[in-house]
């Protein structure tokens, strides 16, 4: 399966044009469900994707790695809320916390330092299976494979292992028939743990903050994805680029959005995640925004993203 190519040749590798262009984004940018004929936040006509049909059976799972080596771009928030939105549409979802900081676990109300067993034990101990560590979440149909600081040791310990890049793939294999989606929240680096996630994944979702410096790091990430594709996982593809922390009131956000769409074309999701105070609230509550504020713009955006992910 070939990787989708950016719309403009050569612009995905650090050559993204950031010059000022006429603003094409609308100024509300809030409701991806809108049927209006104006342009959406991406500058493209709004496209309404219908709710996906119900499933007769579950599996095999599609594995999606939520990846960006830059921190604070919305990886964990997007993993939680995309997973919850997919579960709302009747999909069985497994969330994998693959970051030693354990932010995904915290965001779902789990205290990582209190856990006796985590994904680290599943990876490093043959006697520990997925079922020994899996935790249910407050969302029906969505489970969590938690993490804590112990996982930081795995990056060092795996170096001497045979097939070290395929360790996560091996761990997930028994669960593939039970879920429709496995979402892996990667750490903000391009180390061995992230390579493991990319080796196990069918696709990569790249959350991209609508800010100039976020664009500059995408080229390095795409280089890493291409190396994994060439050497470890030829079926890996970029599922989409997700614009996060978008503020339709600022010219800067709209300019960055225009450059992202110009550089990557249809790879960019129509769904755009706006900057809002609701997301920090959900972290404190330990619940997805689809449960904490189900009618909010953020919840609607992640439901729109879930429909796109299923449709793609």
TrEMBL record:
Lineage of source species: Bacteria, Bacillati, Actinomycetota, Actinomycetes, Pseudonocardiales
TM spans (from-to): none
Region span, Disordered: 1-60
CDD domains, per database record: ParAB_family
Originating organism: Saccharopolyspora montiporae
Family: Belongs to the ParA family.
Role, per record: May play a role in septum formation.
Protein name: ParA family protein
InterPro entries per UniProt: AAA_dom, DNA_Partitioning_ATPase, P-loop_NTPase
Domain AAA per the UniProt entry, residue ranges: 62-238
């Amino acid at each position: 399966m070939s990787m989708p190519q950016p719309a403009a040749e050569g612009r995905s590798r650090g050559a993204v044009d950031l010059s000022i262009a006429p603003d094409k984004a609308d100024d509300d940018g809030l409701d991806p469900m809108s049927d209006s004929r104006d342009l959406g936040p991406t500058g493209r006509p709004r496209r309404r994707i219908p709710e996906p049909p119900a499933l007769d059976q579950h599996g095999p799972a599609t594995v999606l790695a939520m990846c960006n080596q830059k921190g604070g771009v919305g990886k964990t928030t997007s993993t939680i809320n995309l997973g919850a939105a997919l579960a709302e549409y009747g999909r069985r979802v497994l969330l994998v916390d693959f970051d030693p900081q354990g932010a995904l676990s915290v965001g779902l109300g789990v205290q990582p330092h209190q856990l006796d067993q985590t994904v680290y034990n599943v990876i490093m101990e043959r006697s520990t299976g997925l079922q020994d560590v899996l935790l249910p979440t407050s969302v029906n149909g969505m489970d969590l494979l938690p993490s804590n600081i112990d996982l930081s040791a795995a990056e060092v310990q795996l170096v001497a292992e045979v097939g070290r890049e395929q360790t996560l793939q091996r761990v997930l294999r028994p669960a593939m028939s039970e879920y429709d989606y496995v979402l892996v929240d990667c750490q903000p680096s391009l180390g061995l743990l992230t390579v493991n996630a990319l080796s196990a994944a069918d696709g990569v979702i790249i959350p991209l903050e609508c800010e100039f410096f976020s664009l500059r790091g995408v080229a390095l990430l795409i280089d890493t994805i291409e190396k994994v594709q060439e050497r470890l996982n030829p079926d890996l593809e970029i599922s989409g680029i997700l614009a996060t922390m978008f503020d339709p009131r600022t010219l800067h956000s709209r300019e960055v959005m225009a450059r992202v769409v110009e550089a990557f074309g249809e790879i960019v999701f129509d769904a755009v995640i706006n900057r809002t105070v609701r997301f920090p609230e959900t972290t404190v509550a330990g619940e997805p925004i689809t449960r904490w504020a189900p009618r909010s713009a953020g919840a609607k955006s992640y439901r729109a993203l879930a429909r796109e992910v299923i449709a793609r």
